[in-house]
Amino acid sequence: MPQELPKAYEPGAIERRWAEYWIKEKLFSVPTPPEGETRPVFTLLLPPPNVTGRLHMGHMLNQTQMDIIVRWHRMRGFITLWLPGTDHAGIATQMMVEKQLESEGKKRREMGREKFVERVWEWKKLYGGAILDQMKRLGASVDWDREYFTMDENLSHAVREVFVRLYEEGLIYRGNYIVNWCPWHETAISDLEVKHEEVQGKLWEIRYPVVGSENPHPRQNPAWMGLPQEQEYITVATTRPETMLGDTAIAVNAKDERYTHLHGKKVMLPLMNREIPIICDELAQPEFGTGAVKVTPAHDPNDFEAGKRHDLPQITVMDARGRMNETAGAYAGLDRFAARKKVLEDLREQGFLVGEKDYTLAIGKCERCGTVIEPRLSEQWFIKIKPLAERAKEAVESGEITIVPENYRTIYLQWMTNIHDWCVSRQLWWGHRIPAWTCGKCGEVIVARSAPEACAKCGGAVEQVPDVLDTWFSSGLLPFTTLGWPEKTRDQAVFYPTTLLITAYEILFFWVARMIMFGCHFMHGHEQDRAIKKASGWAEKKNDSVPFRRVYIHALVRDAERQKMSKTKGNVVDPLDVIERFGTDATRFTLAAMAAPGTDIAFNESRTDGYRAFANKIWNAARFMFMNVERVEPDRVGTGLRPVQTGSETRLHMGIAGFQTIALEDRWILSRFNRVAKDVNEALETYRFHEAANRIYDFFWGEFCDWYLELIKPRLNFSSEDGGDKTAARAACANLVNLFDGALRLLHPVMPFITEEIWQAMYEGKPAVKSIALAAYPQADEQQIDLAAETEMAILQDLIVSVRNLRAELKVEPKVKVPIEVFAHEPMVWSLIQQNEGAIKRLANVENIKEVSQHQAAQSPARSTARFDVRVVYERKIDVSAECSKLRKELEGIERRIEVTTGQLGNPGFLSKAPQKVVDGLSKQLEDTKLLREKTLSKMKEMGCGA
RNA sequence: GGGCGGUUAGCUCAGCUGGUUAGAGCGCCUGCCUUACAAGCAGGAGGUCGCAGGUUCGAGUCCUGCACUGCCCA
Q1: What residue is closest to B16 (Cα–C1')?
Q2: pTM (2 decimals)?
């Protein structure tokens, strides 16, 4: 110390430098702890971003929160493992590469599966690391040595193992079911991947002629009014008329008397000229429309169920790309929407279309490409989810896993209760291939860990099922597969269950729920290393199979207008752009300061701008410190003025070591520091990031810079003409350094870069530990909290601010020093003023301080408080009427307060029920307010304001 | 249709278990280039806490209803 810091704070260069340093030095790599390790452990799995991903604000919020918590734990001496990796992201990646091929005029299908997958791997090698590189810019303190990719061989091996085990346990089955089918991607997708949207559509009414029947009551049924009497019809309503080509029944409700006479009869399916039965099923609700519905088992999930109940044939009329197939007769080859048009035209022409109404319907769209989902009958693989969900539910209900904020717990439990079987097969090429083979000869299906040579049953040649697994299948396994599963490893014993999961609400079901289900199932019976478990504070937990002990769900980042950021709206804020302009530290601070649990964040750049100013403030305070050290301790330049503390092994070290409480401001700032340390630690404990950030901000700027630095300036200035003392300057300097060091450590998890830069400069690049990230986090020392100092300082501040107020009101020239007259209500206050005379003179621009009678001190221009009256001696005409109206307004407020307080204190209910502390506080307040009233009244009298 | 949240200063938001006179940042107004910082300093204006009831000695905070608004699920 001291290295000269550049005059202006420039985050860009600093941040890049330290980000590289942290990685190069492997500061956050965690080797497997040996047997006998007794330190506490903190483990966190990074929700793996898609390899195709680009960093967005959601990531940045997520990673900022994780990094804060991770750095905080590390600094408190935990063995802290933050595990990074990326997800192969089946659909997204395949799409990306397909698009690339398209631009080269190539097609996936022409290329063939093997070549295509090779191509995807090439793509991954070239571009797959982009998002992780962006993460590095954020300063994420992850263990890069343990970086994984979900398609790595070891993880793929684990995926196959899991699939086979589930199959053997009877928890995986295969079958023909209606699934959500994306005609663009030509694959099944899960319920969760479908986004529902309300659109204005039409409800068409189509009449189906009843076979061999005449209308018995033509005038009693409005649906039949005006129709030819010789032919009876049943009218149904549909929003998807093209599916009628695959109708295999008409359903009516058994209780619906309008149709009783038709039970057992048949109708002629228009356009197709196929006879289909009229069935009774609860699918038809008498209240809705005509009470009759068409049944298309191959194209609607509800109809599918009804079809199974009545053993109806399933007629698929569309192909995988959403075009009508050969069973659609004349419509074969038409796209589904073209077919709809044509079907309607033909129906109208032939007199079957009898109505058309506007209708608001919810349609499902593929969340990735926006194509309208087609329910499609196809052969898929499913996980029988109930048995897995049971344990997963239990784990949360019993409190083995806690979810913060708590309202997500209910949402989770509800979802777990109503959960459906999970369709895990995808008709994609990129992903984990399902370890199943079918025999070409006898059709036998073999699920195995490795490819069978021939069919076990008939010896025929086998071929692997083409489908791959849902991406969430493999990511759901990560908490244990990244720790070596299915082997039993030391890593598992130490790091499993992971401590915490921080993620967005959006993937609560996609990912969080599945990790819990898989964890509870496959890690059943697992036990964490006992000593470590105890040291980490989880001794009372019974279930070590859970993937994590806690889940923290964070908010969504919206734009400044509270709109969800989306590419189509064009309101996406690019975090890297924000970082470029304001710095990573300022951006991190913004996200932390706005992240109150449970509420979304409207990202507002003006806040970030403000926090860059905060960083600049810190920067300049540091320059001030260095400047003084250089002046006061020139002989120590080059050796470093070492603050008293070292690495995180001294984590139990509390307060500020080596701090000397010489003057009031020393006692005060030490007390405040400990208080803020206490608050920040408590806030982080409960993920109240905004509170932690704001607390540090207020302390550093509002107390440390605004008051403490100003107050110690005279002491530092030992050579000044008013006779400074070098020993005192040295002591003040040492205090400043030790305090600054503590403040930097306190702030480091939120603003890692600027704190590292200044901290390293303080040690001239030779600190006891390689980084502030490995130094100890400040813990509060209750002994150093000094109530008396805080009270005294408050009086002093009050006095100084009062004088400043008066000066402003009197429009005293800024350079002019004025004498003040003070009356102190207690001797303590007067001696306090005397002892701090210099500070008052300097900070309030006062010439001298004189003790006078209360009467005199309260004469205008004056300020009165319960502790003192202060008057500024300044010759200036006072605007009497303005002053009077101000006093009157003040008096009104005082009277009102007295009234309210008196009323409350006279209330027996209040006196008997309110806590003593509140009653005492209120009494004191009343006393003070009454005093103020007297003073104000006498002042008014003095000025001749009248009542 | 079911569920969950929001409504506090001009703007963006805090206000945790009900407790003394509801806070911050930005913006606005006034004055300062006071040798750490004009990305700064000092001072100031600005709020019937969405509406209506209720519980309580006491409600921004708890309950009920309403209005507006957002999200999730079907």
Answers
A1: A688
A2: 0.84
